[in-house]
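Let us practice reading a record.
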Amino acid sequence: MKYYCLGIKGAGMATLANILYDLGNEVSGYDDAVDYKFTQEGLDKRGIKIYYDNIHELDKDMVVTHSVALKNDHPELVRARDNGLKIKKYNEILGDITNMFESICVSGTHGKTTTSTMISQILDSVYKVNYFIGDGTGYASKDNKIFVIESDEFNRHFLAYHPAYTVITNIELEHTEIYKDIEDIRNTFTEFANKTKNVIVACGDNENVRMLNLNPKTIYYGFNENNDVYAKNIVLNDKGSEFDLIVNNESVGHFVLPLYGKHMVLNAMAAIVICHLEGVSYEKIAELLKNFHNAKRRFAIEKVGSNVIIDDYAHHPTELKVTLEAARQKYPNKKLIAVFKPNTYSRTQKFYKDFADVLNIADKVYLTEIECNREKSEDYGGVSSKVIFDLLNNGEMISDNDLGSLPDYSDAVICLMSCASISHLKENYINKINNHFN
């Protein structure tokens, strides 16, 4: 088959393109963004052609799929329709792929990427598996039995998937432009999870998860002792996190993670349960987790002079909170600086007070304007970053290119947080800070 992926540098589309290529298809793509994005690493390695114009020929046998960020009147999508090409939804193609393998679908409002990465790394060390990670990383072989896939609830995409196992890390109100309320989200998760052929692994500490009417066998995990699996003797320090795991009231081992924050302990518990269900011993899992390497832009640490930069995909108030708390855990004696680029007007409108409350954990906050390629500001009453800024204790507005007084810091930890592209902001900051202190 020949696939043409529009918006190919988007995290999900880049991952899909990698997998389609690995499964023996011809793959090319288009993107509006000419600048390099971290998601294209796998595309470049495979030699997948990326177009930035509308003058190349389109093959009549191509199947076109596109990112939701592209509007229906996007010139390249219009050109594909005008040429009579078959257009298939991104999630439908992924659904077809999940049906080819024993698929482990990792869902939840937060923690999907890290949990998927943990599961895929552990199982790949033992069996060799296929995986779809939401940081642009994907791989597949027809010879592998297992497919680990980060399963996004955005646009109800995961309803097209066919899970053998399902993980639900948590459920919160999110994507308010898609879901009318939290009940709508719970109902959608229930519909998805109840398609599971084997076992559901769900965080029992989360109230919304417990409210789901789950039909198949479910294993609950968490910190509370009413779960089937829970953690005890948790230690969080500047070296990482460790805990004892209790399964059916019996200790099955001690686990050490090079990760920070209690949320990472929860992610690890989900991964441990799934990997043990797939036949990996607790001892082997503990050994592999000690050397875990997280996905791109998930608490990614880089030292610049006396400062530390943490680049994280956080874009929901809960995600910002755990990122800032984890930074405090690892660097308790450094000044904590938050740099946040909000994404989508709907999310900002709904959570601006929560964003401000969480950002006030930091000693200083730098805020950019909202970036959104699928919504218009005029549809949201002129919502801007100012609604967050007005509630900050110590905030400053900056642009992507004017970083204000940010380079003046030394011995600080700088948390760059957004699901929008901020690689240029990071590069600008590193250049300025190097020039400032050299």
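A brief commentary: The domain at 300-437 is CATH 3.90.190.20 (Protein-Tyrosine Phosphatase; Chain A).
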